[in-house]
Amino acid sequence: MPEQTLKKMSYAEAVNAALRRALETRPEVILFGEDVGVPGGVFGVTKGLHNRFGDRVFDTPISESAILGGAIGSAMFGMRPIAEIMWADFFLVALDQIVNQAANVRYVSRGEATAPITVRTQQGSGPGACAQHSQSLEALFAHIPGIRVCMPATHQDAYDLLLSAIWCDDPVIVIENRNLYHASKREIVIDGNVEPIGRSAVRRPGTDITVVTWGSMQFQALEAAEHLAEDGIDAEVIDARWIRPLDMDAVLRSIERTGRLAVVHEAHTIGGVGAEIVSAVVESGIALRAAPVRVGTPAVRIPAAPTLAEAVIPSVTEIADAIVKTCRS
Amino acid sequence: MPENSPRDASDLVELFTTMVRIRSVENEIARLRSAGDVVGSVHLCSGQEAIYAGACAALNLPRDVVFPTYRGHGWTLACGVPPYAVLAELLGRRTGLNGGRGGSAYLTAPRWGMCGENSIVGAGAPIAAGAALAATFDGSGRVALAAFGDGALNQGAVHEAMNFAAVRALPVIFLVENNHWSELTPITSTVRDEKLFRRASAYGMPGARIDGNDPQGVQRAVARAADRARDGSGPVLIEAMTDRIVGHYIGDVQHYRAPGEMETILAAEPIGRLRRVLEAQDTTAAELDSIEQSIHHEVAEAAAHALADPLADPATVLEHVHA
Ligand SMILES: Cc1ncc(C[n+]2csc(CCOP(=O)(O)OP(=O)(O)O)c2C)c(N)n1
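Predict the joint structure of the above. Result:
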């Protein structure tokens, strides 16, 4: 068991600490992306790493295909690249490298070749972010066999999940949330064990309904749960954390107790991970006491004006209303 | 700067007016952003106005069309969109150019020939090639201009667009606004040959580097390229050298700038420079001051008007996703 250290840091600093540890302990780790080297990242997440690790941390051209392909190819030859795609939306200009290439390497070679890449990106909507900078794309990646996807939302997970991703022998996409980067400082454990991938976390135990959520939307879900506790509804809030592999066992165990399900996410409900969870619960045959409910963004582009964006992105009230409806039916 | 005939001088005043209007609207936007009335990320084009004024003066808008990037307030205004519509859009008002859907980075005004800002680097280039492709079928004589930064030259989409346009001799102008920076990284650290226009020859099209702070020079280069494109001779790559006199976005502290860099840039910025040219000709300082004042007044009024408008209506948010 490695020696553990407690440190107070921001979510961004937690990511930085995980990157530093990976670079320190694994010489095959390299880190690159647009503005991540000399400038230290547009959100300041990679600050100091270029100075400390030199050429192993570098800036790339604005060439997402080259960034991802460069990661895949170098991973096939012994490196452990961590690539950054600055915003999740920018993945789309180079999706081929993820969907047709990275995901395929192990499968077609029957394990003779592998592509253990970690791609860090961030998503989430903030005021005025608008259509090409605010999409929640986890379902798109989760759809592809061969790709792992996680969405750390706590400071500790920002550190732990990233390390699990880097240590994983398959391609992993780590979707951070830019609204969390500099929001607060928390005490976190660093230098602990590298956790296995794919575990969910219970953020609030409860008995009346299972609320499955992930990413920053869990904070709204938790707030809704606290309001509802005053009204006598005791909601269990599970942070799925890993979208793929999804910890359905934990969800099913919870639902066996509560008999009710709400899925809450920021992404569009259409074709989403929420639908996947609802189907898996229905398929499990566990008898629900009420129809399950999904709360997410309707099928619309994300508008720029705050009044418009607020109208479509789930709010605490909307989440609470959906839970109440399920519990009272 | 070559001597100008009297007719040129009046055109220069027009170019000056457009450039001052862009700068003035952007200064207003910066104020509204720090006051919190405008939210989100805003990319100003201050320092690059000569490109927009010169290029739009050379085009026949809205028959010709432009496809700018997120740094597109200047293009939008140079296309003739009123400051009020732009300001109301950034303020998230229902009277805004796009009803609040677009904001700073997605201004779209097809009726003015402004076919939409784009926040994905390089994405506008293939679309502009498509608009030009349509022109080869519809007999409109349309020329499409794709504008993007120096960093965008490293996008696959831009390479594909240039080759596609060249091989089909499409009437497109690829206009690089080379301001030396891609966000926080200098272009010199992401390309080996920083004379970007030289890439044109690889695709079999002409390329040229021009002074992007000289509006008349830009106007001439774009006019020539447009004539050529309309003749069926295909695309051109123009690299217009300029500088942004502001950060990449509002709030960028620009720690990456070398000491003294900004002073040099400000000494060459296009509005002051054009003012000096005009004053050296027949326009008096008082005349120029009065142009500036009337524009500041027009912009301040537009902002006040837009601020008083109602916010975008949430009831309409689901409209226009599909036909
Ligand atoms: C495909 C894609 N990758 C990355 C980004 C993030 N990004 C936004 S602006 C920018 C720099 C662009 O530089 P340049 O093309 O020179 O244009 P400038 O901003 O200087 O006008 C980057 C990397 C993006 N918007 N789209």
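Chain A is about 35% helix and 20% strand.
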